User: Which sequence fits this backbone?
């Protein structure tokens, strides 16, 4: 693989970052770092979705222009790069000039090819989702994702995208690409949804009612519906349609999305690409929801955990580890700060941190290796089985987003090493039998070196600190102090 393009979905700019999106962007970052480590050239894209009704209303509420509001809010999203130690290469805003031009060009192509037309309609609309809701999707007459928001009735003439014409093409796309959506359970869900038949969906709004959007080409009365506009970022970020050389080098790409984006990313967007005559995405990874105390995170419920809350308590790498190990990729997880604290102390403070602290201290005091991993007889056995097996596990499972399984395997090695120290009574061995103690320390240093290398995509700061310690750098730092 010479090039790898990975993108997240774009979060709405009006809210503050929560750990659901933090988990999504950290997962994308892990993939980006892994493929760079494999020698691939990587392009990692993220950004913000800045049009739509809820952004417009929030700006009105504050008495400022929508663009001014977006310019203010975007900073908190850009700051995630430093907060979570992310390595994204591009941050796109849907208010960027080149993105607006790309969205308008995709609109023109869909219209020229006969897939956009006007019609009158009446729907129930959830402003929180910026989506139409059918009766079958509602619970007690409310959107299950935004139960505190009253559904609105929209009745007007808009442009519609001929989604209904793409059932066969989408099913053919899925059949030809058996790993198109991961995990398989989510792929089965979208295949069943498409098999049941598709309905055309609105892709514009009357400018007189909702002016905050990209102007529809050749029609001054309409602006693009936020979903049509925002999805185009995956290709506008690559320079499409003006820089086709760059676009063709990177596209098709892969993306990570939350499960509430399943239909939009795996069916609606793919149909739009087909309508415009463009290649489809390569692979789409669908994650689950993070809930807090059994409830979906919501400001109105007062149960939002922010990435900053976590970083303030656990550090950037501690936060990355905790979010990556909450549950298997694609599964919903329930979390509390108490549970996060317990896992941090068990796995990081008492586990990895304790291992490194003990081995480094004993090596500094009793070993002639001077912290350089010198593999002895046992180390050779360890290297050919335990360490090689760890590398295979990472390579095999990374491409299926099995981050928790990989980290669980790494922590199994940490647990083994801590147990090995106890069994050998290493603190006594280095004094009573220096030669044997030296061999055991060499084994452990070798293992720690491999663990450091394995952690590079997941916990880059920690990996770098361990490498620095092993190369002889002085460090009295406790990598993971216990927290309350």
Assistant:
């Amino acid at each position: 693989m010479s090039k790898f393009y990975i993108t997240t979905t774009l979060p709405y700019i009006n809210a503050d970052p929560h750990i659901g999106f933090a988990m999504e962007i950290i997962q994308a970052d892990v993939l980006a770092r892994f493929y760079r480590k494999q020698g691939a050239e990587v392009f990692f894209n993220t950004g913000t979705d800045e049009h739509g009704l809820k952004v417009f209303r929030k700006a009105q509420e504050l008495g400022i222009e929508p663009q001014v509001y977006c310019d203010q809010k975007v900073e908190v999203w850009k700051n995630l790069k430093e907060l979570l130690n992310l390595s994204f290469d591009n941050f796109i805003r849907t208010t960027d000039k080149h993105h607006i031009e790309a969205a308008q060009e995709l609109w023109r192509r869909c219209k020229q090819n006969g897939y956009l037309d006007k019609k009158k309609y009446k729907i129930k609309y959830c402003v929180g989702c910026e989506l139409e809701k059918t009766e079958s999707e509602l619970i007690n007459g409310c959107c299950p994702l935004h139960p505190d928001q009253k559904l609105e009735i929209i009745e007007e003439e808009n442009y519609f995208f001929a989604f209904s014409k793409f059932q066969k093409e989408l099913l053919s796309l899925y059949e030809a690409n058996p790993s198109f959506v991961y995990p398989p359970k989510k792929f089965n869900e979208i295949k069943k949804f498409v098999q049941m038949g598709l309905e055309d969906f609105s892709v514009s709004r009357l400018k007189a009612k909702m002016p905050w959007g990209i102007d529809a080409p050749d029609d001054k009365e309409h602006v693009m519906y936020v979903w049509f506009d925002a999805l185009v970022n995956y290709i506008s970020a690559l320079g499409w349609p003006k820089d086709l050389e760059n676009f063709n080098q990177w596209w098709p790409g892969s993306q990570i999305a939350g499960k509430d984006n399943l239909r939009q990313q795996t069916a609606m967007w793919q149909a739009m690409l087909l309508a415009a005559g463009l290649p489809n995405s390569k692979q789409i990874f669908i994650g689950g929801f993070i809930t807090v105390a059994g409830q979906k995170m919501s400001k109105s419920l007062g149960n939002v955990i922010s990435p900053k809350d976590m970083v303030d308590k656990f550090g950037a790498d501690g936060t990355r580890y905790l979010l990556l190990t909450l549950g298997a990729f694609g599964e919903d997880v329930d979390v509390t700060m108490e549970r996060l604290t317990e896992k941090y102390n068990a796995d990081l403070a008492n586990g990895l941190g304790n291992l490194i602290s003990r081995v480094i201290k004993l090596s500094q005091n009793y070993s002639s290796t001077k912290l350089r991993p010198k593999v002895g007889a046992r180390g050779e056995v360890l290297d050919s089985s335990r360490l090689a097996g760890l590398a295979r596990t990472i390579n095999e499972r990374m491409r299926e987003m099995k981050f928790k399984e990989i980290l669980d395997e790494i922590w199994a090695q940490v647990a083994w090493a801590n147990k090995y120290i106890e069994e050998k009574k290493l603190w006594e061995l280095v004094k009573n039998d220096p030669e044997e103690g030296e061999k055991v320390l060499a084994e452990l240093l070798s293992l720690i070196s491999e663990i450091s290398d394995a952690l590079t995509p997941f916990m880059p700061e920690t990996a770098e600190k361990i490498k620095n310690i092993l190369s002889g750098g002085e460090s009295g730092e406790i990598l993971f102090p216990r927290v309350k």
User: Anything to note?
Assistant: The chain has a mean pLDDT of 90. Residues 18 and 306 are 5 Å apart (CA to CA).
